[in-house]
Amino acid sequence: MQVETWNAAELVAKDIAHHLHPLTNLYQLRREGPLVLVRGEGVWVWDAEGKRYLDGFAGLWNVNIGHGRRELAEAAREQMERVAFVPTFFGLASPPTIELAARLAELFPGPLDHFQFTSGGAESNETAIKIARYYWWLKGQPERVKILSRRMAYHGIAMGALSATGVPAYWEGFGPRPPGFIHLTAPYKYRFGEGLTDEEFVARLVQELEETIEREGSETIAAFIGEPVQGAGGVVVPPDGYWPAIAAVLRKYGILLILDEVITGFGRTGTLFGMQQYGVQPDIVTFAKGITSGYVPLGGVGVSDEIAETLASADRVFMHGFTYSGHPVACAVALRNLDILLAERLWENAAASGAYLLQELKRLEERPYVGEVRGKGLMLLVEVVRDKASKEKFPPEFKLGPKLEAATRRRGIIVRCTPDGIVMAPPLTISRAECDVLIEGVAAALSDVLD
Asked: What is the pTM assigned to this prediction?
């Protein structure tokens, strides 16, 4: 590959002058500038000055097959040359969109056989919420509009998805949220289930769900939305019995289950889908990120046969969709990405590498400021606390996240650093030796900041 040269200072200056970054402290960025990445290969990326970093966050949880896979670039080129854009409005379609829907029907467990495509996770969850409400409207129960979610959940930043998101920091300053969203306790045993067995903790969460349904009235609730493993809210791995118990209650009251597989889908947890970790079957599933490994934007929603039949039973237009729903180039890339994922069985490496990372990172719990290390597959978090006995967090003025971010980047790794600690989600292709680089970088960065 020909090595390109970049004027890093000029790029940084232009970025500061013109680019509004999402999920970024814009005040801080104006003073320090961005890290400009210009090339990627496997689990590695390079900045504009030539420094190499291990991408310990797979872009944004999404570069599952790794950087620099030419097969995906070729798939995009071939489709662009054939026909670059075909809408899916008004009964139109293109071959890649049709083939991708059919492939997903084969891959998803159970009767999830019907798909509408979006441009990403927030659009997918927005779509799922609307489909759930529309389904009940068609069934003659228009009062079923409430959505149950969990605290610490992240479902996106579109207004409906934002209301389902259970992290208050995402709401602040953006005005009133749409009504009808109810947040339950996250299955976060480290903080909410101390002293309880897994069975006791699950029983407490199930009791809360039953009491909430009885208080609100099951006839007013459309759906419960949840990530199999909560991601951006803190890599909350539920006890094994949690999802079967929650699903049983929802079935009892006729409430739809929406599983948000935006992060957990396509191999990240160590199975092809996160739902397979827990043996639970949703009525609706959302996905994005790993379906194209982030090479182009694509997301979608899958619904059960029964929901699809209900949607098709009404002789009226289904008034929902996006300009780029089912974009043929994105779908062509997704098909090639799935070919690679399946041929290389990358979920198996996610399971093995994730288990190794969890085992080795658990050693950090010996340190006085590491409260818990947890994970499922290649979703891991080192939770940092000020006081281990009380589990007290560092105060905001300590700026733990920015300090850890600076330290990890100095050590040559890119991870997500938050006020809670360090989150890791490397590409599913990561090798044992590359895992060791990530482990050493995280351990050293923690020492730099807290020892």
From this structure: 0.96
